[in-house]
Amino acid sequence: MANLTVWDPFTEAGLDELFKGFLRPARFENKAPMQIKMDVSEDDKSYTVHAEIPGVNKEDIHVAIDGNQVSVSAEVKKETEQKEGDKLLRSERYYGSVYRSFALASEIDESLSNAKYDNGVLELKLAKRKESQARKLTIA
């Protein structure tokens, strides 16, 4: 036969367990991977994309266009060191990649499009491809 034990949270041991760490300060660390945040606007001739990719070298950013599909990827390298005198107390490194892809309503003309990267923001000017006009043929 199994022994059953009744747990009373209001006993001294139960209260200790209930409030364990209650007054201890909370410590939050941002361990989430970096994400590319984007703003996309449109006018009659082009799309403008602003993508936030802070702390990345422009050589590590790649933009690919295929029809109306746009892909942005970047290699992220973050290193931090904390020294006290000559002793190294903490060293952290993060290497990885971020990727974002989206589709636009119109196809993009790569030859008229351009990109620039300044202060952690990638700006893409994506020219819309001119739609081919349907022609009416006259029958002779």
Would you give an account of this structure?
With 140 residues, this protein is mostly beta strands. The chain has one domain: Immunoglobulin-like, CATH 2.60.40. It is built from one helix and seven strands; from the N terminus they run H-E-E-E-E-E-E-E. The strands form two sheets. It has a four-stranded antiparallel β-sheet, with no helix packed on it. The radius of gyration is 28 Å and the shape is elongated. The relative contact order is 0.20. The model has no long low-confidence stretch (mean pLDDT 81).
Name the descriptors:
elongated; 140 residues; mainly beta; Immunoglobulin-like; 3-stranded antiparallel beta sheet
Mean pLDDT: 81
Instruction: Give the biggest beta sheet.
Output: 4 strands, antiparallel
Indicate the radius of gyration in whole angstroms: 28 Å
Number of domains: 1
The CATH topology name reads: Immunoglobulin-like
CATH architecture: Sandwich
Provide a compact summary of the structure.
The chain is mainly beta and 140 residues long. It has a single domain, classed as Immunoglobulin-like.
Secondary structure elements and pairings:
Layout lengths: L11 H7 L18 E6 L3 E7 L8 E6 L2 E16 L2 E17 L4 E11 L2 E8 L12
Antiparallel strand pairs: 1-2, 2-7, 3-4, 4-5, 6-7
